[in-house]
Amino acid sequence: MTDAKKIILVTGGSGLVGQGIRLALEEHSLKQPNEEWIFASSKDLDLCSAKETKAFFERVHPTHVIHLAAKVGGLFANMNDNLGFFMIAYHNCSGCI
C-alpha cells in the first residue's frame, strides 16, 4: 500500500450519508495518517455551477471523490426528476477529474 497523501472529497458532506461517513471515521478511528477528508456542503460550493466546481477542485486537488450530493428541490421536484438532479452535480464533478 502506498503512503502517498490521499485527499478524499465527500460531496453532500452535510447530508445524512455524508454525516454518517464522518461519524464512522471519527468514532471508529478509521481515518489513516495519509488521508485528508473534506466534507463539502452546498455552503462550500455550488455543484450546479461548473465554474465554481472546477475552481474548488483546483483548490483542494482531491485524489478521490465520494459523490453524494444532488440538487435539492423539495419532495415533489425530487420525485419527478431525481436522476436529473443527481446528474447536474455529477457532470460538473466528473468534468474536473
How would you explain this protein's 3D organization?
By secondary structure, the protein is an alpha/beta fold. It has one domain (6-94): NAD(P)-binding Rossmann-like Domain (Rossmann fold, 3-Layer(aba) Sandwich). Helix content is 44%, strand content 16%. The longest helix has 20 residues, at 75-94. Residues 8-88 form the NAD-dependent epimerase/dehydratase domain. It comes from Hymenolepis diminuta (Rat tapeworm). One of its GO terms (molecular function) is GDP-L-fucose synthase activity. This is NAD-dependent epimerase/dehydratase domain-containing protein.
Summary tags:
single chain; 97 residues; alpha/beta; 3-stranded parallel beta sheet
Short summary:
With 97 residues, the protein is of the alpha/beta class. The chain contains three helices and three strands; from the N terminus they run βαβαβα.
CATH fold node name: Rossmann fold
Distance between the termini: 23 Å
> Helical proportion?
40-55%
> Could you give a short account of the major beta sheet?
3 strands, parallel
CATH superfamily: NAD(P)-binding Rossmann-like Domain
CATH architectural designation: 3-Layer(aba) Sandwich
Structural class: alpha/beta
- The CATH class label is Alpha Beta
| Tally of individual helices | 3
Low-confidence stretches: none
Mean pLDDT figure: 86
Name the helix and strand elements from N-terminus to C-terminus, one letter apiece.
EHEHEH
In the sheet with the most strands, the strands line up as: 2-1-3
